[in-house]
Amino acid sequence: MSVRRGRGSLRFLVAAVGAFLAVFLAWPVAHAARRAFVDRSGFTWTYVASLFGEPSQAQAVWMTFRIAVLVTLACVGVTLPLAWLFARRSFSGKTLWSGLMLAPMILPPFVSAVGLKMVFARCGALSTLLMNLGLTQGPVDWLGRFPLLGIVLLETLHLFPVMYLNLVAALANVDPALEEAAGNLGAAPWRVFRRVTLPLAAPGFFAGMALVFIWSFTELGTPLVFGLRRVLPVMIYDRVAEVGTNSEGYAQVLFVLIVAAAGFWAAKRATARRRDVGTLGRLAALRPEQPLSRLGTVVAAVCLTALFAVALLPHLSVVLLAVSRRWFLTVWPEGFTLAFFRQAVGSDLTRAALINSLGLSLGATGIDLVLGFAIAWICVRERPRGADWLDAAAMLPLAVPGLVIAFGYLGCFSGAFPGTWLDPRRNPMLLLAISYAIRRLPYMVRSAHAGLEQVSRTYEEAAANLGASPLRVIRRVTLPLLSANLLAGAILCFSFSMLEVSDSLILAQAEEFYPITKAIYTLMDSLENGVNVAAALGVWAMLLLGTAMLWATALLGRRIGQMFRIG
Fold it and tell me: Looking at domain 45-337, does it have CATH number 1.10.3720.10?
């Protein structure tokens, strides 16, 4: 009887999880894809064909690809020597530098753009510095002359840790015996790296490239802040008001979804190949790290200092803007004040936004805790037929951009449940919380998955043999043993939900429902020091996410990198 009851409970759990993902992930995505080919007259190819036939849309497609390719190549240039250094060499301060690797991610590029615009503006800090040094005759409008400069720089500085985590893991797993064999045959070190190491690490390398490409291809906030409207994410944002009447936005959503899904599929294939080829080193002896010489340590310290100085420049610029009374035609702000920090938490707009974001993030974290643990439990402990499909579905939000989910929610829920909490036109709070949860679900699944793989079944079996019910075993044995992993996943889900951009900008249309990120975007266009208040909100957000990262890292240690890797 108990076995039959357990199987019935398992089937119910799988059905409940599958129904949730079907309603709030598959249905909105499928609705957006269907509407790309359907309007009031019926089936049509017009809107999809206009992506490449209409000059403005074709230009947006090209510009979006261009940004993604440039960001990906820039991340490759930064992370390839960086990952090799940390995977193969030991040097003084390596632990400290390794701990700082996630620091650039504590502020989204959307918020960083607020401060960096002050650096690259026509009368900003960089132009003033060059004029003071006599290198230019007058102010230079860097963002006007080089419109992609700020976008590519910000997204590169934000995303290079993601590629680094994938690449350093791939390099660490390469079998050292293969490289030693090539060296014994007379190959030079550079030839060994090019012909042996890099091909074996290529699957993980490609997985990191694919993830960076997807994120930069679907980034909405940064082009929006820098005023670059001819990119697909911004054009989709501009179509929000026409969700029910114009299928052009759906065609753009479909194209973004296809590109993101193709990149995710390629990354999954790459990581599967890495498990077959690139991890042979796990069967071999551990590679001893070669110590750097004194000169090498000095060079490494100088290069790493320069890298992190540039990577943290946006964060510094946001802080300076938040405390400056005046920053115009000067290298540094003139006068400092803390008044903007008080305004950032004291005005009606920001106070309501903080309360909204807090409630939404707590709700999203609660959903992720229940859903993430259930999925991990099914896939690790029970493994019924179709468990691999459920695990893949849980990781799909890495491939489905937030703007696709939010646009799909507007399309399929608007008018479907009029007057209820599922009507985003009336009150988007429930759908905002669910969209936040869907977007951060992979973090919780991977965290709980890693914890369950490390916890032996012996304790659970012993409790069951003593007569404890399955629910009691989970509550009294499994959950306490998994508490560190679940807490770390919850911290990441909460903090990243507080700073979610795409969903917030698209779903929150009325000021009373604005989260923090929508409030920051609104303040950028307001007069009387609105930009300074927006920067102060960004500093509060940076402190929140930085604290969350440190806490999660303390709980998970080196396993924190698994949260930002595919496979």
Answer: yes
